[in-house]
Amino acid sequence: MLSHDELHARLFLLHAAEPPAPALHHYVAVHGPVDAVAQIRHGTAPAAVLSEVTRPDARIDDDLRALDSGTARMVTPEDDDWPLGRLTGLASFGVPLALWVRGSGSLAELTNLAVTVTGARASTEYGNTVAGDVSYELARAGVTVLSGGSLGVDEAAHRGALAANGKTIVVLANGVDRTHPHQHARLYQAVVEQGGLLVSEYPIGTRPTRIRFHARCRLLAALTAATLIVEAGQRSGALAVARAAGELGRRVYGVPGPIHSVTSKGVNELLRTGVATVASSVEHINYQEGVR
Fold first, then answer.
1. What are phi and psi of 244, to 5 degrees?
2. Is 27's pLDDT higher than 80?
3. Residues 262/239, Cβ–Cβ less than 8 Å
4. Which alpha helices (DSSP H) does the chain contain, by range?
């Protein structure tokens, strides 16, 4: 369990730098959060670390109130609930300094057997149906379904898992106390009530931004052994998840779509270039092996 000083230091660090912050993470891993914060505040930390610190006067009052009220909890590398094996490989991408979690489930246990299902926001009926059906079957097999909570394929993936009475995790690009998109308030509540989790590396109250959506991609890729892309245009953020998963040594799968469909051009290219393997059913997805 974190000491008072360690807790306050971790909370400060989450505010002080915009993820990913690989130099800061390495410095904290070597020196510990309390000493790291002291050196940052004195300006004696290495230049690479100080360059990542953009909010040296950050306050943590809202975070402490959220912890005290039970609105959310924080999982750190010192906790048994930290999915250590999965996140260790993120060293070059920037390991999160801590993770905010809403829900009573264990993050480590839920990601032990898990698949990321993501894709286009402006999805077609085909994409939504495939994402929902695959996620339903994964959940029936006891697999946790991860996605980003966005409209389109992400929403279909979460709802598919819930329909099977399974567990699903929403990885957010904002604080876990915020609902984005706003239409998903009931969906997120159902995720938590059914034993799933809302997860974010961003402090309480943080709003989503383009850079945060991009940074989130590495977590969607890292927290599972396999990623399935269901529809993705040529500029879709889902392609960044696929690239990160491949670089992390995770398995990457794609659902082929019509060659004239704009929402399938990106995933079809992943398949053409060999970045992804074709998957048209759950039987094609290997989620049993790989990293913890």
1. -65, -40
2. yes
3. no
4. 4-16, 22-31, 33-42, 47-52, 61-69, 84-88, 107-110, 125-140, 153-163, 185-193, 210-222, 238-247, 265-272
Largest CA distance in the chain: 58
Is the preceding omega at residue 181 within 30 degrees of 0, hence cis?
Answer: yes
Q: Per-residue b/e over 244-256, b at no fewer than 16 CB within 10 Å?
A: bbbebebbbbbbe
What DSSP element (H or E) covers 114?
A: strand 114-119
Q: What is the pLDDT of residues 117-146, one digit of tens each?
A: 999 999 999 999 999 999 999 999 999 999
Contacts of 177 (CB under 8 A, 6+ apart): 66, 71, 72, 102, 204, 205
Instruction: Give per-residue pLDDT as tens, 70-111.
Output: 999 999 998 999 997 888 788 878 899 999 999 999 999 999
Read off the pTM.
0.95
